[in-house]
């Protein structure tokens, strides 16, 4: 069964969030993210979003899935709302904020350099007060940080990359030099860049207990110096985005080369269900067969009991297209049994009794418990997790060249095997 767009995005460990849609394409191109998914195809995501999906291959053949997307509008509040919603729905494990910024020329930042950082402050947080009989807004310059290991040495090895503080505002400014100077005089902090989203991004990721996402920094190309010349040359803007993409690609490779990013599915509903099903059914049935406990079979056509050929294995059949409610009704199972000439079977005795079907030398079960996954937000994916976790259990593994006593079959495999027997 093909992955849904939602599952395709959730399988990506890294999310790269830009400030606005215009920034996505250039950065995605530099990263080699060619597959495109529209928000209209993704459950729970605003229709206006666009996602560019890519993969990076590392030593040992490991592949890191990632996507590049953006807020629908730039600015602190729109970015915080859109990115928070995307993190909640898509559940990336790691996140980076990328785009463009206005650089601080006095600190040696030049056009088309790249500023990277893990700390920012907002110009919008503070209070209004009367100062010399004039109502004045006084920013509190609270710093938001989400420290990233390795970011400082990474920046120090590249001539066009600077590590430092960002300051975020909700409006486009042409007085960035004055803002930089005021901050330096007020709180003696040297800020390298002015932009519109970094503090919101770092604030979101700082609540990792709730978002479960780890920030890997903010990387932004310098497209202007925040003065009256801002925006006069669109080629500078595009080149700054390209430089951002190049540095971002190096940073991702540097960062993930020594990192484990594969997600654990231990807490998924499908995994929990598989553990219970394995313990309560598969394990008990295989133990009963191994111990030589009786197996009683009722012939479907003759409606009489007779000694069964001694089963040697247990086959667990998954539903067509991983449709979790396919086995929900007993009538459906009886119809399947009639179609494929399956016999009702009882395995074990007393409290160890379990019911199944019998086909030749195999016991067959159709796990009706999968119906319990209907209310999850990705039932087909949870069914896949259920299968993977079963196949990892001891009774589903070959031992010393012998066939495993239990096996999971897809619906197609079951039909094929049944037709040939």
Automatic annotation (TrEMBL):
Residues 14-249 form the Nucleoside phosphorylase domain. GO terms for biological process: defense response to virus; L-methionine salvage from S-adenosylmethionine; nucleoside metabolic process. GO terms for molecular function: adenosylhomocysteine nucleosidase activity; methylthioadenosine nucleosidase activity; nucleotide binding. InterPro entries: Nucleoside_phosphorylase_d (IPR000845), Nucleoside_phosphorylase_sf (IPR035994), Prok_STING (IPR046876). SUPFAM superfamilies: Purine and uridine phosphorylases. The keyword Metal-binding does not apply. GO terms for cellular component: cytosol. Transmembrane segments: none annotated. Residues 271-374 form the Prokaryotic STING domain. It comes from the Eukaryota. It holds the Pfam family prok_STING. Keywords: Antiviral defense, Nucleotide-binding. This is Nucleoside phosphorylase domain-containing protein. It comes from Friedmanniomyces endolithicus.
């Amino acid at each position: 069964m093909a992955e849904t767009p939602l599952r395709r995005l959730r399988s990506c460990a890294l999310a790269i969030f830009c400030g606005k849609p215009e920034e996505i394409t250039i950065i995605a191109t530099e990263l080699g993210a060619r597959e495109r998914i529209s928000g209209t195809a993704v459950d729970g995501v605003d229709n206006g979003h666009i996602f560019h999906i890519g993969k990076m291959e590392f030593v040992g053949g490991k592949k890191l899935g990632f996507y590049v997307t953006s807020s629908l509008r730039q600015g602190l509040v729109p970015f915080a709302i859109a990115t928070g919603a995307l993190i909640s729905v898509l559940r990336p494990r790691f996140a980076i904020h990328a785009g463009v910024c206005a650089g601080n020329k006095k600190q040696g930042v030049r056009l088309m350099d790249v500023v990277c950082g893990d700390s920012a402050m907002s110009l919008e947080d503070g209070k209004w007060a009367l100062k010399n009989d004039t109502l004045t807004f006084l920013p509190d310059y609270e710093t938001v940080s989400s420290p990233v290991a390795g970011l400082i040495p990474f920046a120090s090895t590249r001539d066009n990359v600077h590590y430092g503080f960002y300051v975020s505002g909700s409006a486009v400014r042409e007085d960035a030099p004055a803002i930089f100077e005021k901050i330096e005089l007020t709180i003696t902090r040297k800020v390298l860049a002015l932009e519109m989203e970094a503090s919101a991004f770092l604030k979101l990721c700082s609540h990792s207990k709730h978002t479960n996402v780890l920030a890997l920094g903010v990387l932004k190309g310098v497209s202007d110096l925040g003065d009256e010349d801002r925006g006069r040359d669109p080629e500078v803007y595009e080149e700054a985005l390209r430089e951002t993409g190049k540095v971002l690609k190096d940073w991702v490779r540097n960062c993930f080369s020594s990192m484990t990013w594969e997600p654990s599915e231990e807490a998924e509903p499908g995994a929990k269900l598989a553990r219970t099903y394995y313990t309560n059914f598969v394990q008990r049935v295989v133990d009963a067969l191994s111990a030589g406990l009786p197996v009683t079979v009722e012939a479907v056509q003759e409606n009489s009991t007779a000694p069964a050929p001694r089963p040697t294995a247990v086959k667990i059949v998954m539903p067509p297209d991983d449709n979790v409610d396919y086995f929900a009704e007993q009538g459906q199972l009886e119809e399947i049994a009639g179609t494929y000439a399956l016999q009702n079977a009882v395995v074990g005795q007393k409290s160890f009794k379990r019911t199944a079907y019998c086909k030749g030398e195999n016991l067959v079960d159709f796990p009706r418990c999968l119906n319990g996954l209907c209310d999850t937000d990705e039932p087909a994916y949870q069914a896949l997790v259920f299968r993977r976790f079963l196949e990892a259990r001891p009774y589903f593994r070959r031992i010393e060249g012998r066939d495993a006593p239990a096996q999971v079959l897809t619906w197609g495999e079951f039909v094929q095997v049944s037709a040939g027997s």
